[in-house]
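INFO batch 0412 | record 1 of 1 | parsing
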Amino acid sequence: MSKVAVVFWSGTGNTETMANCIAEGARDAGAEVETVQVSDAADFPPERVAEFDAIAFGCSSQGSEQLEESAFEPMFAALEGNLEGKKILLFGSYGWGDGQWMRDWHERAEAAKAQLFDEDIIVNETPDDDAQENCRAAGKDFANR
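INFO prediction complete | emitting tokens
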């Protein structure tokens, strides 16, 4: 059984909905899943990366298309050096722009030599039923790889 972490920050609840659906899909695939909502960088310190076979990171777009800067960005920056070879999935929601924050984040994960899941998951505004089902399917697929 694989051990999966779903680590996220959510301001409006949209990314939290996505996180819960991804976690549900991974559990349905038989994975042991731990969900961590980040409110402070200490919520998921770098040494925790080694505890998991795979980690799904979720954060909504903030400001001028960037990761949330008071909790999530410092947490992710602190653990980037621990991502080499780690299987990760990036996801999040946005309300404006064209998803540049996700492309930038993806490049950072690639530079850290993480093993990125097939494609990042982004949803504009509130995840509808189709988006939620896509998150569940991705979680299941992610846990099985």
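INFO post-check: Helices lie at 14-28, 72-79, 100-111, 129-144.
INFO record closed
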